[in-house]
Amino acid sequence: KIFIFLVFSITCSLKCHLTFGYSIVNSLESEDIIGFDMKELQTNNQSETIPRRVFVTGGAHGIGRAIVEAFAAEGDRVAFCDIDTERGNELAAVSGARFLAIDVCDKSALERAVTALLDEWGDLDVIINNVGVSSFEPITQTSVEHFEMVLNTNLRSAFITSRLLAMHREKSGSANPYGRIVNLCSTRYLQSEPGSEAYAASKGGIWSMTHALAVSLAPYHITVNCIAPGWISVNEDEVLREEDHGFHLSGRVGRVEDIARTCLFLCERESDFINGQCITVDGGVTRKMIYPE
After folding, report:
1. What is the sign of the dihedral through the CA atoms of 60, 79, 104 and 199?
2. Does residue 83 sit in helix, strand or coil?
3. pLDDT tens profile 69-121
4. Which of 189, 199, 220, 291 does the annotation list as catalytic?
5. Residue 161: is its pLDDT beyond 70?
6. Sign of the CA dihedral 191, 194, 183, 253?
7. For residue 218, what pLDDT band results from cuts at 50, 70 and 90?
8. 194-207, pLDDT tens digit by residue?
């Protein structure tokens, strides 16, 4: 009798637990529980597979081209701008990315291009502000116009694209939970040589603007970081010596793919805890203490 009573009690208990578990599953499907519902969870899971909408400035050659190719290989929807129409059209043909022939120093043209993409695609998930010029000349020969051209290319263009994305997110109510901006800085923001005033100023501005943007754009679910490349070989015909490679702690000169891979990493959804940072990719050179022998 005791045995039968225990079996009966256990059976009733199991039925109660099963009923309670079934009730929880049903409630998860019909109403909010602990801050989320099943429909939202399903939407978030689906968003992981949706191609990202990516815009790259200065994407026809060198580091920019590698970045365009990297995101296109991920299956993302990519647009890029450049003044080099020949290389831009060639890259578009082989990568499937959209080429926009634009001089980023033309404020109106850049604004029209970004606005058109936002209107057509509904939003931009990733902006890579890569475009840059590095023309060096003695300060006694540097005109104010040249200084302004370098800053307009390297720095102002990044402000324009970032500002337009923020304005769009504010207007749309920040519905998109994902956003990434990666600005291309340089190790020259903290190291200099004669004649680099305009370039150094533009890259120092990129680093400072990056952490300012990270704070300002946080309400729109956008992380902002920058990458400071060291010596990156961007020309296939560049002749590199053994001492060039040996100068780096990593034993080689950098490749454009090194920067493209860093961009992909920073733009992963799981990399959202990296924000307002400058990632140096230079083979360890800036960590060397060098004195004349």
Report:
1. negative
2. coil
3. 999 999 999 999 999 999 999 999 999 999 999 999 999 999 999 999 999 99
4. 199
5. yes
6. negative
7. very high
8. 999 999 999 999 99
The pLDDT value recorded for residue 173 is: 85
Could you give the 3-state DSSP secondary structure of residue 293?
coil
250: left (phi > 0), else alpha (psi -120 to 50), else beta?
Answer: alpha
How far is it, in rounded angstroms, from Cα 157 to Cα 168?
Answer: 17
- Specify the 3-state DSSP secondary structure of 231: coil
Contacts of 105 by beta carbon, 8 Å cutoff, 6+ apart: 149, 152, 153, 157
Which amino acid belongs to residue 266?
L
Q: How many Cα atoms within 13 Å fall on the side-chain side of residue 82?
A: 26
| Residue whose tokens read 């399903």 | 42
Catalytic residue list contains 199: yes
**Tokens representing residue 89 in the block:** 């059209």
**Sign, Cα dihedral of 38, 39, 41, 46:** positive
CA-based R_g, the chain, Å: 26
Backbone angles phi, psi at 190, to 5 degrees: -130, 0
Of 1-5, 116-120, 126-130, 260-264, where does mean pLDDT reach its minimum? 1-5
* Beta carbons of 125 and 48 less than 8 angstroms apart: no
Residue 130 burial by Cβ neighbours in a 10 Å radius (0-12, 13-18, 19+) = buried
> What secondary structure does DSSP assign to 159-218, as a single string?
HHHHHHHHHHHHHHTS-----EEEEE--GGGT---TT-HHHHHHHHHHHHHHHHHHHHTG
Question: Taking phi first (over 0 means left), then psi (-120 to 50 degrees means alpha), and beta for anything else, what does residue 197 get?
Answer: alpha
Distance CA(260)–CA(118), nearest Å, equals 24
Q: What percent of the chain has pLDDT over 90?
A: 75
